[in-house]
Amino acid sequence: MRANAANTSGLALNVGFLLNENIGHKSLFTVDEAAPSLDPELQLSRLAGSVQLTRTPQGLYAAGRLHAGHTAECVRCLAPVPVTLEADIAELYSLASSADADTEFTISDSALLDLAPLVRELLVLDKPAHPL
Fold this sequence. Notes:
Layout: E1 12-14, H1 16-19, E2 26-33, E3 44-55, E4 59-73, E5 80-95, E6 106-107, E7 112-114, H2 116-126
Parallel strand pairs: 5-6
Antiparallel strand pairs: 1-7, 2-3, 3-4, 4-5
């Protein structure tokens, strides 16, 4: 299945059909974005991969891997260096009605699951500290 874009990043997935399925039901979403805008300081050339969503009693479990192209600055010569960032996703998204108020990993009342905050977090953590 192709991710239904509901925001500029293309990482908001319409999961209404999945919430009506039995526990254990799985659905695979493919992500392929040319230049996603997750963060002004994280310029990506491409974001691709897949995420499998599994229905659980608490909500949906997201598992998958995304790859992103990024250009960093070499710490020695200051030249642009292409870097591949990876986001290994393994997160439980709770239903909005049963979720804690302070968590951002929830499914909205309109049945949208936004992967952008999690993916941004994982990609920022994967950036090399001293690219060569």
